[in-house]
Amino acid sequence: MDLPTIPPSTEPSKRNILKPAAPGTGVIAGGTMRAVLDAAGIRDIRAKSLRSNNPCNVSKATFEALKALTTVEEVALKRGKSASEIMG
């Protein structure tokens, strides 16, 4: 799965950093976050959980980040440009 843009979490007590990784990298994440990302079918990603070590908070923040994903086409539509202009 090719990851689109991943915005940071908006809740101050829970924060995850999710970044797309090069193909073949695999899932580089902690235990709870790794389980959620594997279940979602994401294969190449680098992830870090900040501020909270509680598995409930980490999983909630991961789900929020995955729900907030946007594609290149959505970003282009918001900016009034084509996807090819965004990608350069």
What structural class do you assign from the helix and strand content? alpha+beta
Average pLDDT number: 84
Estimated share of beta-strand residues: 15-25%
Give the oligomer, counting copies of the same chain as homo and different chains as hetero: single chain
CATH architecture, by name, is 2-Layer Sandwich
Task: Describe the protein's architecture and organization.
It is a single chain. This protein is α+β, with helices and mostly antiparallel strands and 88 residues long. The chain has one domain (15-87): Ribosomal Protein S5, domain 2 (2-Layer Sandwich), CATH 3.30.230. It contains four helices and three strands. Helix 1 runs parallel beside helix 2. The longest helix is centred in the last third of the chain and has 13 residues, at 55-67. The model has no long low-confidence stretch (mean pLDDT 84).
Structure keywords:
three-stranded mixed beta sheet, 88 residues, Ribosomal Protein S5, domain 2, 3 strands, alpha+beta, 4 helices, single chain
In short:
Helices cover 41% and strands 16% of the residues. The model has no long low-confidence stretch (mean pLDDT 84).
Q: Topology of this structure?
A:
Layout (H helix, E strand, L loop, with lengths): L14 E6 L6 E2 L2 H10 L4 E6 L4 H13 L4 H8 L3 H5 L1
Parallel strand pairs: 2-3
Antiparallel strand pairs: 1-3
Helix pairs in contact: 1-2
